[in-house]
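Recall the central idea of this unit: under ordinary conditions, the amino acid sequence of a chain determines the structure it adopts. In this exercise we apply that idea directly, starting from the sequence alone.
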Amino acid sequence: MLDNIIWFGHDSFKFTGDKTVYIDPYKIKKSDKADLILITHGHFDHCSPEDIAKVTGDKTIIVAPKDCALKLKGNVKIAAPGDKFSVTGIEIEAVPAYNTNKDFHPKSNAWVGYVFTLDGKRYYHAGDTDHIPEMKTLKDIYAALIPISGVYVMTADEAAHAALDIAPKFAVPMHYGEVVGTKKDAERFAAELRRLSAAGTNIEPVILSQQR
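Accordingly, the structure predicted from this sequence is:
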């Protein structure tokens, strides 16, 4: 189903396919060589130069907002909300990610989530965000990775409503079990999404097992 996605905990993922894509690598145990690394924003648990270096090879391209890009070495491309480009043959859209009722991730910081296409499927990593209006503009998302822990991002219930706006085939909860939030938040998200989508939206929640 989503066998090509490895969750390392928190917001950190590896996607495998024709290319290898990492998003927000954090507390990485094994070295690897990514084709593409996507960084959502400058907080230490998302923009970790040490962890990024562990999965960077000679041909790796890193995409990151300006505040993180300035901390990194290698082939780094700066991204801002609204940018669309192709990297190593992967189509990428940088989309807004921000808080609406708290100040941890201000819209003015120009931090991002990403929509990218791998092996013909569109994936959305929301970054650290609340339920924002821009989510309604996303189209044809195969799997959406959505923060659900509350405090710094939206709550599990808010995230379930966000998933309805995104309308992916699969919805994967993230941003729990490391800094804030527990698996119970993920389970609450899944239960609420199933309740909300009972009318026929057919979004399947998938709770991934953490790997290191």
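The chain has four helices and 13 strands.
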